[in-house]
Amino acid sequence: MERTPEGTPVGVDDPYEVAGPCDHLTNDGRCRYALDRAGHDPAFATDRRRADYECVAAAEGATWRDCPHYRSTTKARACQRCGLEEVRLAHESARPLLETHHLSYHDRGTSHEITVTLCRWCHAKVHQSFARIDDDAAPTTEALAAREERRSKEQAELGFTSARERADASTSAPSDDTSSDDC
User: Fold this and answer.
1) Which alpha helices (DSSP H) does 51-140 contain, by range?
2) Which of 44, 70, 73, 163 has its CA 20 to 30 A from that of 102?
3) Cut 0.85: pTM above it
4) Sheet strands (E) in 23-150
């Protein structure tokens, strides 16, 4: 299994097996990196221009590994391992339920950035044991509790009470006056 520079497992044998399409790939199969960043790698841009900016991986027999600028970073809103969905509250700085998990590391001989989304509980399991990203896993009870707590807060924020309902509630509330006119 691949490992981080610190030696902890990343949850896959081959990061390219779970990697998605390149972030630079356009809908029509062209390389956006060569189009937008020609100055960063002029030789690469010239080569892509000669090939009408066709993606390197689109060539016969080529793979994502063959492109020097391949990058697959996640934008998922659910854990790839257990399926837990993110619930973010707009005005809270609570730790997110989901985290970006790196599958490749620059000092391991690759310059490709490959990431997936994992909930923080699966992320810990992958790094602290031999748990794999492709395991058939369900969210932990702690993860479900954290998500439901956030959903409850979210529903409370979405609740609507009209001014009339608030006024009626304040006038119909019992008085705190404990004095009695009875003699």
Assistant:
1) 120-128
2) 44
3) no
4) 71-72, 98-102, 113-119
Q: One-letter amino acid identity for 86?
A: E
Give me the tens of pLDDT residue by residue for the chain, a chain 183 residues long.
888 888 889 999 999 898 889 999 999 999 999 999 999 999 999 999 999 999 999 888 999 999 999 999 998 999 999 999 998 877 778 889 999 999 987 655 667 899 999 999 999 999 998 899 999 999 999 999 999 998 888 787 777 777 787 777 777 655 555 544 454
- Phi, psi torsion values for 98, nearest 5 degrees: -110, 150
Q: Phi and psi for 117 in degrees, rounded to 5?
A: -100, 130
Q: State how far the Cα of 67 lies from the Cα of 144, in Å rounded to an integer.
A: 39
> How far from each other are the two terminal CA atoms of the chain, in whole angstroms?
85
- The total of other beta-carbon atoms located within 10 Å of residue 140's CB is 16
Residue type (1 letter), 101: H
Find out whether 49 and 34 touch, Cβ atoms under 8 Å.
yes
What's the token pair of residue 121?
């509980």
Side-by-side strand order, sheet with 98-102: 71-72, 113-119, 98-102
Q: State the Cα–Cα distance between residues 3 and 108, nearest whole angstrom.
A: 9
Nearest CA-CA partner of 112 in 57, 58, 60, 61: 57
Maximum alpha-carbon separation in the chain: 102
